[in-house]
Amino acid sequence: MLDFLKANMRPSNIACILALLTPGTVLLFVPSLARWGRRWVGAVVLFYALLSTQAGAGLFARTLNGGYQPITSADQARGAKVVVVLGAGSLNLRAAGRQLSFVTAEAGLRVLEAARLFELLNAPLVIASGGATEHDVRAAPESAALQRALIAVGVPEDRILLESESKNTRDEAIVVKRMLAERGLTDFVLVTSPLHMRRSLLVFEQQACTRSRRRPTRARAIVARKSVSAQRAVAAAQRRGVLRVGGANLLLAARLAGIGRRGYG
């Protein structure tokens, strides 16, 4: 059920649109409630009309990013040596015993942001995170598609580490924490999208708090909004009539092993 909701309950997904319209449509056939049905359908149409504009999509994204400021210099990353890119789905093509993986549009924007950070932070390690989420056991993990995309935008293969075990964000937090601990690293930059950012923060915080034996301390968080290249990609998608409100990328730099529950700062 969770996988179904994650895959279909996005504002840009036709299943989500139909789910929002269905209650109003049903009310239209009840004479005593038809007025409310018209209001419901009208509200949904107005919501999507606003969301399909650049201003509306930008406003919606700002309500999700929590007011974090962009990372514009290496100093703002506070010594982070690792960039962690969370997966956002991949497409696997298989034929004649061969397989080819591609990132989704949302994952591609995360890759572009990771490439920008790679240059800004003087070639840190990049962890491409995402296991096989398809039910087919032959499916390649999302990390493989991320790796291919990262290489295509200029990140050297020897600076990329693959996290291919996870099935969800909680798994990613657990495995990434272990990978960093094995290398003696704590500070990192997390690349994700607005619709995923707050949940990612909560999940990484919970894993750090419940599994670290040290007394929790306050986290050091720095978040950056989407890069210029990502902005252009989203604008182009909107011009084509493609609604991708999750296209803006956000970055979180936090001390993983010492994240506390009291907040960020």
Describe this structure in words.
The chain has a 5-stranded mixed beta sheet. The longest helix has 18 residues. Helices cover 46% and strands 18% of the residues. The chain is an alpha/beta fold and 265 residues long. The chain has 2 domains: 50 residues, no CATH class; 197 residues, HUPs (Rossmann fold, 3-Layer(aba) Sandwich). The C terminus is likely disordered. Helix 7 crosses helix 8. The two termini are 36 Å apart. The radius of gyration is 20 Å and the shape is globular. It contains 9 helices and 9 strands.
Largest sheet: 5 strands, mixed
> Span between N and C termini?
36 Å
Q: How confident is the prediction overall: mean pLDDT?
A: 75
Number of strands: 9
Could you write a compact summary of the structure shown?
Helix content is 46%, strand content 18%.
Topology:
Blueprint: H1 2-8, H2 14-28, H3 34-51, H4 54-65, E1 82-86, E2 90-95, E3 98-103, H5 105-120, E4 125-129, H6 142-152, E5 160-163, H7 169-182, E6 187-192, H8 194-211, E7 217-219, H9 228-239, E8 250-255, E9 259-264
Parallel strand pairs: 1-4, 1-6, 4-5, 7-9
Antiparallel strand pairs: 2-3, 6-8
Helix pairs in contact: 2-3, 4-8, 7-8
